[in-house]
Structures are given as structure tokens and as C-alpha cells.
Amino acid sequence: MRRVTSWGGVGLSLFAALVLIAAGCNKSGQSKEKDTKPAQGGQAKADTKHSGWWCDEHGIPEAECSMCNAKVAAEFKKKGDWCDKHERALSQCFICNPKAREKYAAMYRAKYGKEPPPTEDD
Fold first, then answer.
1. Residues 12-22: pLDDT tens digits?
2. What integer pLDDT is reported at residue 56 of this predicted model?
3. Dist CA 11 CA 49 (whole Å)
4. Which site among 19, 44, 46, 109 is 20 to 30 Å from 38 CA-CA?
5. Residue 97 in contact with residue 60, Cβ under 8 Å?
6. Rounded Cα distance, 115 and 106, in Å
7. What per-residue confidence (pLDDT) applies to 51?
8. In whole angstroms, what is the distance from residue 57 CA to residue 49 CA?
9. Given this model, what pLDDT does residue 73 score?
């Protein structure tokens, strides 16, 4: 008696396995979603998440971050609150206005009851 192998079934099974492996493979362990919010200069930063209340990168509430949101930056510029040297709102420039860091850190402590995470400037 001769055994007949269905090559179509084997091929389909291999194809399905490859699709599942490729779909589940994410070497970095991070989400493949990219952030679409404009950054300085109007470009999106793919390596920064902007989904929460706090901008970890800059130490400011996300909705107020002039370094991550071009619309917010334009509003600060319109008000004359802008640091040309550091490309951010002057009221958010921790370099020129060190007291601003404490203002925002106090907001974070009031909301979360702990110290804010370090920023990229730290």
C-alpha cells in the first residue's frame, strides 16, 4: 500500500506558522505604535510615549509641554513666553528659570504623592 502525502496541507501549515511567528515577533519588546505628536521643529518623536498626564522626558504635564506639542508651543510664542536659546516656553525652561522645575515637581507630587522621574536635562 502506498502512502499519499498532501503537500498542499503541509505547505499551508508551514505558511500559517510563519505568519504567526512574524506577527508575534517584536524583538525590542515595545509597542510598534509610533507617537504622532509633533516635537520640536514639528517632527514626531517615535521614542517617546505621550499617552499619560505627565511628560517624563521634559518634567511637565503633557497637555502643557511646549517641547512636544507644536500647538502648545505656538500659544506660548504668541504670548511672548518663549526661550529662543532652548526652544521651549520660558516659563518651562528649567535652564533659564530653575524655579519652574520646582513648580512642576510640586504638581507631580500633589497628583502622585512621590517625586517626579528625572528629565532628559537631569
1. 565 655 554 55
2. 94
3. 41
4. 109
5. no
6. 8
7. 75
8. 9
9. 97
Spatial separation of the C-alpha atoms in residues 56 and 77, rounded to whole Å: 23
Please report where in the chains the cell 519652574 appears, as a residue. 100
Q: What does the domain layout of the chain look like in residue ranges?
A: 52-112
Mean pLDDT of the chain: 76
Give residue 122's pLDDT.
75
Question: From CA 62, how far away is CA 69, in angstroms rounded?
Answer: 8
- The C-alpha atoms of residue 55 and residue 51 are separated, in whole angstroms, by 9
CA distance 21 to 63: 38
Query: What residues of the chain score a pLDDT lower than 70?
Result: 1-50
15-30: b (≥16 Cβ within 10 Å) or e: eeeeeeeeeeeeeeee
Q: What gap in Å lies between CA 51 and CA 75, rounded to an integer?
A: 21
